[in-house]
Amino acid sequence: MQHFLSITEKSTEELNHLLDLAIELKTTWQHGGNKPLLANKVLAMVFQKPSLRTRVSFDMAMRHLGGDALYLSPSEIGLGKRESIGDVSRVLSGYVDVIMARVFEHDHILQLAKYASVPVINGLSDFNHPCQAMADVLTIREHFIKLEDLHVTFFGDGNNVAVSLMFACAKLGMHFTISAPEGYQISPDIVTEAEVFASKTGSTIQAITDPHQAIKDAQIVYTDTWVSMGQEEETKKRSQIFPPYQVNDELLAGADPGVIVLHCLPAHRGEEITDSVADGPHSVIFQQAENRMHAQKAILVHLLVE
Prior knowledge:
By secondary structure, this protein is of the alpha/beta class.
């Protein structure tokens, strides 16, 4: 039995297969609908953190493929509080065919997978966001066809989204740059792990503090909120540190002329990204949001059918 917990656990070949499958499922959906590959299958969606895209994209992915999804709110379960994670995992395994969880602590995902007898999907943890990374790379591939040697630059906090994007770039041969203030870079231990993967694909990974230097040659520009859920007490401090890393027209002018702009959403317009960029000709953020559904279809089919 397989799980989908981190990009690090998947080979380059497996990631490319998932991308091929996502494109096939998206194309089929656009031309009359998907076959009911997941008929009579049920997904349990366990949420500690709220999310528009994660909830709706997984729910609709199951519906398009003939299955069903159950939403379980934080108050209904209380992972590790009202009931142990191991007990929740074993109980749900007796009811449903696959579990997706969106949690605060990555260890909660690992415990769910440890005790589950059905596949577990990481819908987000404090360590990484692998489903988002698959949607990101799917969007990039739709625009550039060939992923190898593309230059991806991430502006802002070295958070879970940045980590998964870095691993995806390393596994798929794209060059990854993060531009963040001192103290907000991706952890050196995590970068070292990514560099091992990068050495096998020809990818490069670098951190450049100066945003105007970091954007040179960038073909894909990515940004995310400066304050993630659970960091609200740092809002004032971060709002004083991060403005130089705002993705705006002036910064974007230094990128490759064919650059595309990504954002995992929700966007705090006027903070990490301006309206003129988010709604501008280089933005593909709403295509990227839709691709969460198609990438997750591929993950679900891979785990439950293949």
